[in-house]
Amino acid sequence: MTLTTKRSLLARTVWTALAAAAVLAGCGKKEEPPAAAAPASAPVAAASAAPAASAAPLKVAFAYLGPAGDHGWTYAHDQAVKAVQKEYGDKIVTSFVENVPESADAERVFRDMATQGNTLIFGTSFGYMEPMLKVAADFPNAKFEHATGFKQTDNLRSYDSRSYQTAYLAGIIAGKMSKSSIIGVVGSIPVPEVIRNIDAYTLGALSVNPKIKTKVVWVNSWFDPPKETEAAQSLINGGADVLLQNTDSTAVLQTAEKNKKFAFGWDSDMSKFAPTAHLASAIINWAPYYSKAVKEALDGTWKGNTATWWGIKEGANDIVAISDQVPADVKELVAKTKAGIADGSFKVFTGPLADNTGKEVLKAGESADDKMLGGLNFYVKGVEGKVPGGDKK
Amino acid sequence: MEGLALLIAASLNAGTALAIAGIGLLINERAGILNLGAEGLMLVAAIAGFATAVHTGNPWLAFGVGMVAGALLASCFGVLVIWLNTNQVATGLALSIFGGGFSAFVGIPYVSEKLGEQPQFNVPFLADIPFIGPALFRQHPMVYIAIVLTAAVAWFLYRTRAGLVLRSIGESPESAHALGYPVRRIRLLAVLAGGAMCGLAGAYVSVIYTPLWIEGMTAGKGWIALALTTFATWRPARVLLGAYLFGGVTMLQFYLQGLGVHVPSQFLSMLPYLSTVVVLVLISRNASWIRANMPASLGKAFFPGS
Q1: Are A65 and A74 in contact (CB under 8 A)?
Q2: Which residues of B touch A7 (CB under 8 A)?
Q3: Domains of chain A, each with CATH number or no CATH
Q4: ipTM for this prediction
Q5: Is the pTM here over 0.90, yes or no?
Q6: Is A258–B93 a contact, with Cβ atoms under 8 angstroms apart?
């Protein structure tokens, strides 16, 4: 064999590997068959405007980022979808597509959903924003709902939860439970939503232990269990003894369990994955919002161009399954703070507040508005390192 | 210092699955078979091993089942490329994609399962040596087994008659055939051995390294193992070294972040892959290096009649 053919074999190997990766990334979608086929004789006009006059069920479709069984982000959405289906019974038909990549493929998925007669379509991840904008423009009669985004049109609106509120409550527990006064966060992708959670977690911990330092390791992915494991292990090896993650699997919690450290469940109740390491779970309950959106779509009051941001007050966020290892007085403090957040008497981002270079970001008495929170791009004092890409503004 | 010891320990652990799979693929390639299906083999073995561990709680049985699953799937590949003379690249790719889809499908009920805690293993006495103990001697036994396997394969290839026959088939199956060796059967054995080792690596990933099952969880380790054989110019010891190097770079990205070194984390995530490409380029520059070691019949079909 000549050298050139050897080289071409190598090149071919690399190309085929790339092709395989591309094909694999596209695989793995599956659509749940609609529970009941829509009656063929359904009046066509009942598509959107007519308020619940017809018997044809409203078709509602969801695009999931990961597998429905990830026990994290997507699982929380899936639980809410099940709850909504139960609530509205035969008035609606829900379906979902899992593992929808945040890429051009997403557009095809949304287009499929609209073509198949779904009139209320939810995209459950930030990266679906541009594809949804495109598809929404082509299907003016369908209603689109985008999670965690910031762009809206006449038939596209966005919704989000205030998980930083529960991150703050988790921080209170972390600050009390940490022996080394070093806590860690496995960050997913450095967007404001995640940085907000890191800051809130740190502020919560500092409120009970002023010596707290937060270490952050980014894995640049929402869902990559082996990487999450490696990142968690490196934080623990660096001295952190209470971990939080903004990634979607249970890997960080399980790594903490293995190393006899503490961690939190995120997005859904993860207590069963790490009986001793699990301190509490910061959960998101999407059901109230999904119920509201479906109701509006059914009775014709649905309007685009809005952004809904619900938190503890509306029942969208909560901290649950607090471990018995957490002392009673800490539990009480958490409950008190939670009540304060719910009635609006306490705000997580309140001045005086400085970023970790010492620059004042909020004066005493000021508290962050939603605009500031939405674009939050700095670490508060106590977090080590710099926000990736945070230098250029 | 303690941090460095832990970094070394984590790198060895991260490199173990790569080393085992890489050594398995090396056996294949030394016999002239290029198996691009490694990723698929690892995934199928990962779910087989994980399911076994869930139901029995016995990791060693899980490794065994993973090896059997890997070998079974590899035997399909072997029959296709050795007897039916299908294109090795295309068949391997198909196997890889099939393995990914099949494991995801049969793995659905296991996505939310968890495994019981595995006890920490310490090498007696050695584990207590300062620095060296935490760095080297507090690993899962499989980390040491990977090293023993590498040594065994090196010994087999270079010190035994059977190893010589295997290598000669990889160099010139026609000559080996003329000498009366059953080329196809020996190639099948090599494929089975390689499949079993990829299977062991896959089961290690899902049972010990990240003890959970997620679709596509080996995350490209099979492809990296394939690159490792070239990286190592088909030498077992270099496969092992390459695997640890790769594991080290993977872990380093997290440790640097933890230490607060301000390098963009996206750049660090890229490092392991970048280093693979750089080494491949460096090796490919030296023509004699590749020529001296690459099995001459690699990837080519063998027709005994011709």
Answers
A1: yes
A2: 284
A3: 57-162+286-310 (3.40.50.2300), 163-283+317-374 (3.40.50.2300)
A4: 0.72
A5: no
A6: no
